[in-house]
Design brief:
CATH class of the largest domain in chain B: Mainly Alpha
Number of domains of chain B: 2
Helix content of chain A: 25-40%
Radius of gyration of chain B: 29 Å
Shape of chain A: globular
Helix content of chain B: 55-70%
Oligomer: heterodimer
Strand order of the largest sheet of chain A: 18-17-19-15-20
Strand content of chain B: 5-15%
Radius of gyration of chain A: 26 Å
Largest sheet of chain A: 5 strands, mixed
CATH class of the largest domain in chain A: Alpha Beta
Number of strands of chain B: 5
Number of helices of chain A: 22
CATH architecture of the largest domain in chain B: Orthogonal Bundle
Strand order of the largest sheet of chain B: 1-2-3
Structural class of chain A: alpha+beta
Order of helices and strands of chain B: HHHHEEEEEHHHHHHHHHH
Number of domains of chain A: 2
Chain lengths: ~625, ~375
């Protein structure tokens, strides 16, 4: 146990070496000068924490200057939460090498993997100028998480170890300590996630909505006005730190929302109290504003090519590349190809929790899943749709991942229709109807209705190719595209037989990252939504996993969470990956599809090559867009 | 009486006052159908449009022969190939119809596929040849085509789509679905319109009231959302053919109202005519009166207005499929083809994929002009 803790300590002490910058002089951004002159804001010296975080620039990045508006395009107004993902100010976050480093925290200490002491920065302030101290942690812990009315279902999973909450101490204004009885390996990664675990909350703003701190009559009037059921509803509505839809909610992010939804255009202004600075004494972020224009997602490529976005990866796809490349001079941008970090671009998820008993029995046979997997000609999909630039693989970790082994990627992902037919025959599916379609046990033809949240022709094309190769196995494939919410609902309820969706998000995990994506721990795992729900809700709803291999995965997951040596974790990871790929719980199709990223020619410090993925890189997040600047 | 009654000595000639020329006589004695034809013939545009329609419907009978490829054949090496031009002369020398073979390469800079015609490769087309195999009208297996590319070569007269399928073949096959949906739909809606309009017009009273209210309710729905709702009901497991019929019926179910109304108003007017009363007094049954005495009175009008509503059906199918609610791949119609063409890449890089618009425009215009001419001709006695 000690070993683990010690190693982590060395990790972060490396990165936070230069806390005190040489320059004592700070430069006021032009953007805020007027407000400072008018006395609305204190001068920059007083806004920056006494111990600010000095940005470490990557190779090829250089310190910049203030100014400019970073324009982005989004497909839905919900997408404004991307400012939270791109902004990426976290208590503890990943750096581009995917190591965990302190960010909002000055530093942190880990003892035996179970005691976490967090040190805040002196003089750090919320975006409204109020001090950010351990009080923010106390408010969240005592008044939100442990409030029966606000959190009737208990603490978030990452705060529980064996179902037990931590002991939390607020040692002084700058120190908070979380202690569990057992190691909690989920804690730090959860703080660094794109949708992070929040440990702090702006109590000074939220108290007016909290029954404990406000006059009942005044609060009742507010509840009435907002039209919520009770004060808890109102408190929840005002407190969406991740969704960023309440401009009044103070934040610690580099940019803060100033537009009340609904709107077509959201403006995020620089946070005058941001805690990061560059080596020359400029307060980050360099860009004064970020704007998000909401448009139809199918128009994003067209608008980007007209130069309407300064930094765009979302809603762009490989097949837009040729088109975007053609517009480079006209639109004054450069389009780069980043590596995708997903384990598989798309994967098929046979629903092991289907409501149809015959289908459920069939799909739970590993040979059936293997047969339909090797019945897919991935090479053809690669050639036809991805110009041969991708790789046909199963849904597992990528080759640049330290846990990679070729047998995981190649397990049951090589096209072999003869073997597939043989496997299907052995399963008792040897009867066929007049069309040559195999008959299931109940005499019905083997017709798979595949649900997809199809947002473009790419999914349907992939499915058309799969349908064709499955037809040769005597399996009929029908595609049912629907809206994402409807799609999820159908899969969760067990109505859907199979689904097509993105493969695993994090294709580059290290042994220190949680293997949860490979284990039934989440309802959004479309091959076993009910098992995931069972886990998520602490066995209150959903179904208990009832096949041996899934139980084994869960067992391994618990072992991983309790283990304290890297070797153990690695060997557990390997066993999980082996089971997952041998059992073909999800059928991966293609990995390594490059992601086009449009970058304005004037925008500096955006890396040429990067990993574009939700987790662990939070899309642009770990490359720190607060250090991107306009020349 | 002094005055004598005058009687002309000349033999009685009934046509002495207004004698008709041979032409006039022919006109007067001509049947109604013939009159319509004569009148229609004078409307040159309508005749031309009629010919175009006839030809287009003719091709749907033999789509398999006309298309050089089967519509689902994919050419993995020829994705997004631009149209290959048809040539007759190679270096001043007459060669017969041929295309130049394409050199293909992947431009790693733009990740686009580039096709350059290679002037060395003269690929002479073959005629009355065997190519992709298919089932003629889904029944007889064959591989006969009117026109095929040279052995081992390609001929994409209108280019290929993102899976390397020949667009010309797809438009040819798509015509069958798109055009037949118009005819099929109009048949159903004609039947419904005549039946319900006839009942309403002939019986009047409460039957009329009920049918009229029903018509009004149906007409008061906005068309597109109703189509969408109905087509969403069609189950996914239905075969493409069943979906096709389903869409036809949906289009027809919403279209009969206009026809029913005009049938009713015509009937209301005609049933008061003397010959109708006479027939009724002689004991003829309602069915016979409607069929023998009333229908012929406005048949031509019905035909003309039916012709005019076919393009509406074709557009309806196209619109539904364009929105992704109508026919689904693998079945192909013009609407499906256009649906696949609706993205920015196509407009900017592969403009030939918008070509299915052309036959849609032609067929709609042709139907409108032809229907116009037919309506003018429908009442030749005016």
């Amino acid at each position: 146990m000690k070993k683990f803790g010690l190693r982590l300590i060395t990790l972060f002490s490396l990165c936070c070496a230069s806390v005190h910058p040489a320059t004592a002089q700070w430069f006021e951004p032009e953007y805020l000068k007027e407000q400072v002159a008018a006395g609305e804001l204190p001068p920059v010296q007083q806004r920056i924490p006494q111990e600010p975080s000095v940005a470490t620039l990557m190779d090829g990045q250089e310190p910049g200057k203030y100014g400019g508006t970073m324009r982005m395009l989004m497909g839905r107004s919900k997408d404004i939460r991307m400012i939270m993902v791109y902004g990426y100010a976290r208590l503890v976050g990943y750096n581009p090498e995917l190591e965990l480093v302190a960010d909002i925290l000055k530093d942190f200490e880990v003892e035996e993997g179970r005691q976490f002491t967090l040190h805040l920065r002196k003089g750090h302030k919320w975006s409204d100028g109020e001090p950010f101290t351990s009080e923010a942690f106390r408010y969240l812990w005592e008044d939100i998480l442990n409030n029966e009315e606000l959190y009737p279902f208990g603490l978030p999973g990452a705060l529980l170890v064996d179902g037990k909450p931590p002991e939390v101490e607020f040692i002084d204004k700058q120190t908070v300590r979380y202690t569990w009885e057992q190691p909690n390996p989920f804690f730090l990664p959860a703080l660094a996630a794109p949708s992070p675990l929040f440990l702090y909350s702006p109590g000074h703003y939220l108290k007016q909505f909290h029954v404990r701190y406000s006059d009942p009559a005044v609060l009742a009037a507010k509840v009435e006005e907002a039209g919520t059921r009770n004060w808890a509803g109102l408190h929840h509505r005002r407190n969406h730190p991740y969704k960023e839809d309440n401009p009044d909610l103070p934040t610690l992010q580099p940019w803060m929302n100033t537009t009340y939804p609904p709107s077509e255009r959201f403006v995020f202004k620089r946070n005058p109290f941001y805690h990061r600075v560059d080596q020359n004494g400029l307060q980050l972020p360099y860009a004064d504003e970020v704007t998000m224009q909401i448009t139809s997602s199918s128009l994003v490529a067209a608008k980007a090519s007209a130069g309407e976005s300064d930094l765009q990866g979302r809603y762009l796809r490989l097949d837009n590349y040729t088109f975007l490349k053609g517009g480079e001079t006209r639109g004054n941008y450069q389009v780069r190809l980043w590596q995708s970090g997903a384990g598989s671009k798309y994967a098929l998820y046979p629903n092991l929790n289907s409501n149809d008993p015959v289908w459920k029995a069939l799909v739970r046979q590993r040979d059936f899943r293997r047969a339909i997997s090797i019945g897919i000609d991935r090479q053809e999909i690669n050639q036809v749709i991805y110009l041969g630039l991708a790789l046909g693989t199963s849904n597992t970790v990528l080759d640049s991942c330290p846990l990679y082994r070729s047998e995981y990627q190649n397990a049951w992902s090589q096209y072999d229709p003869d073997h597939a037919n043989q496997l299907l025959d052995q399963l008792g599916l040897d009867q066929r109807d007049s069309r040559g379609i195999r008959l299931m046990e109940n005499g019905k033809p083997l017709e798979i209705i595949l649900h997809t949240a199809g947002e473009g022709t790419e999914e349907t094309d992939v499915l058309e190719l799969i349908g064709e190769s499955w037809r040769k196995l005597g399996i009929m494939l029908f595609t049912k595209p629907s809206q994402r919410e409807v799609f999820r609902e159908r899969v969760f309820s067990g109505d859907a037989m199979m689904a097509l969706f993105n493969g695993i998000d994090n294709g580059l995990p290290t042994a220190e990252m949680s293997p949860e994506e490979f284990v039934p721990t989440n309802q959004t795992q479309l091959q076993w939504p009910k098992w995931g729900q069972y886990f998520e809700t602490n066995h209150k709803t959903g179904e208990e996993p009832d096949i041996e291999e899934a139980q084994r995965l869960l067992e391994l997951y618990f072992q991983w969470s309790k283990s304290n040596s890297r070797e153990d974790r690695e060997s557990i990871w390997h066993e999980i990956l082996k089971i997952y790929s041998e059992e073909v719980f999800s059928i991966g199709l293609i990995c390594g599809v490059p992601q086009p990223v449009v970058v304005n020619n004037q925008l500096r410090n955006v890396p040429e090559k990067g990993i574009y993925s939700w987790s662990p890189t939070s899309f642009f997040g770990v490359y720190r867009p607060d250090t991107f600047w306009f020349d | 009486m002094n005055k004598e009654h005058y009687v002309s000595e000349a033999p009685f000639d009934p046509q002495s006052i207004e004698r008709m020329t041979a032409g006039q006589e022919q006109y007067y004695m001509a049947s109604r159908r013939r009159l319509i034809w004569w009148k229609l013939k004078r409307h040159k545009l309508a005749v031309w449009c009629g010919a175009i329609l006839f030809m287009m419907y003719g091709t749907t009978l033999i789509s398999e022969w006309i298309a050089p490829y089967y519509y689902q054949t994919r050419h993995t090496g020829h994705i997004y190939s631009p149209p290959q031009q048809l040539h007759l002369f190679h270096e001043g020398e007459f060669m017969g119809p041929f295309v130049y073979g394409n050199d293909t390469r992947l431009n790693m800079e733009t990740l686009g596929r580039e096709y350059v015609p290679n002037l060395e490769k003269v690929e002479k087309l073959r005629f009355f040849c065997s190519g992709d195999s298919y089932k003629f009208w889904g029944i007889v297996s064959s591989d006969f085509h009117f026109i095929c590319p040279a052995e081992g070569s390609t001929m994409f007269l209108l280019g290929t789509d993102r899976l390397g399928r020949d667009l010309f073949s797809r438009i040819t096959y798509g015509a069958r679905i798109s055009l037949l949906i118009g005819l099929g739909g109009i048949t159903v809606s004609l039947f419904l319109g005549l039946l319900l309009g006839g009942l309403a017009g002939y019986y009047g009273g409460w039957v009329d009231s009920v049918i009229q209210r029903l018509t009004e309710i149906i007409r008061s729905f906005p068309e597109l959302p109703l189509w969408m709702a109905l087509s969403a009901i069609l189950p996914v497991t239905w075969s493409p053919l069943l979906i096709f019929f389903g869409i036809t019926v949906i289009l027809a179910l919403l279209d009969w109202t206009g026809l029913a109304r005009s049938v009713r108003s015509k009937l209301l007017a005609l049933r008061e005519e003397d010959y109708c009363t006479a027939a009724r007094l002689m004991g003829a049954r309602p069915g016979r009166i409607i069929k023998r005495h009333l229908l012929p009175g406005f048949a031509s009008h019905i035909i003309a207005s039916a012709t005019l509503s076919i393009p509406g059906m074709i557009l309806g199918e196209t619109a539904l499929s364009f929105l992704g609610l109508g026919l689904r791949p693998p079945i192909t119609s013009w609407g499906v083809l256009l649906n696949e063409a609706q993205n920015i890449n196509v407009v900017a890089l592969y403009p030939w994929l918008i070509l299915p618009v052309v036959p849609v425009v032609i067929i709609i215009l042709a139907f409108n002009f032809f229907g116009d001419g037919l309506r003018d001709a429908a009442d030749p006695y005016k």
